[in-house]
Amino acid sequence: MNDNNVNEIHRLSGLDALRGIAIVGIVLYHLYPAIFPGGFLGVPLFFVLSGYLMFTTSDRHWEKGDFHFGNYYKKRFLKIFPPLFITVIAVCSYMTLFQREQMAGIRQELCSIFFGYNNWWQINENSSYFSRLINASPFTHLWFLAIEMQFYLLWPVIFWLYQKACKTFGGNRMCFLFLLLSILSAGRMWYLYTPGEDPSRVYYGTDTMAFPMLLGIFWGAFNRQFKRVRLPAVSPKKAAILLSGFVFVTIMLFFSVTGISSIVYQGGMFLVSLFFLAMLSITESLEESVAKWLDVSLLSKLGAKSYLIYLWHYPIIILANL
Known about the structure:
Elements: H1 3-31, H2 42-64, H3 69-98, H4 106-114, H5 118-124, H6 143-169, H7 171-192, H8 200-204, H9 211-225, H10 236-256, H11 262-284, H12 288-295, H13 298-304, H14 306-319
């Protein structure tokens, strides 16, 4: 195994651990919102990781000359839709048998789920993410997947245009376009947010929640153009201390931040996303021994199954009235 393959394994191991942190925060928020009011911040962490992987994976295929639109869409379709279809069918079957009242108006919601606009459908329905309502839909959490699907749909075209623009204007300049777009998205969140009102519109919106994913894309593009920014190697002990510090701060955010706080939508979530970007960068700079430890950690195991956990946990919580 050559060094490039080794580094790739380390990177994936670290990212799985970060995914694990994200899914733990989200599940705890949905289970115990009073205790973990900031667990929803696992969502921007997921978006940062998704954006980063979206760019780095596409760039790797571009360098090898095998980046194709059809292959990209095929892989995303097979990753997303079979587990999603099974989950939705199983939940609908259960509701038909035991909680038929939950099936009222389900057709439009299912269309929004499978066609990737569920976040906008929920905005139109005035659905609140931060109020625990009676008879809440077991599919409310799929607004997140809708934004992912919208990015996946547009990304091959955006990436192709980016590569062409790099040849004309230079990659060292073009990579900062994603940073600018992320700032504009965060600014739109600030502009549309109204203090004292339910913030679900700015939390659900693709326009207002694009910035964490755009930051991840920016970091992938920045590393590509500037030959990967990596921190100097540190000893396993120091790395463990550093990681523990990041995890501790993240846990404190899960405990202390609330989804109805004005500061979250007036730049706070953007700053938190930058913090997650720093955590991503440090995770990638770990020595081999620490990377192997992450690979066998519980967080990494949870992160590897995070998509399935995300699909199933919320319907179980809602239908079991936990």
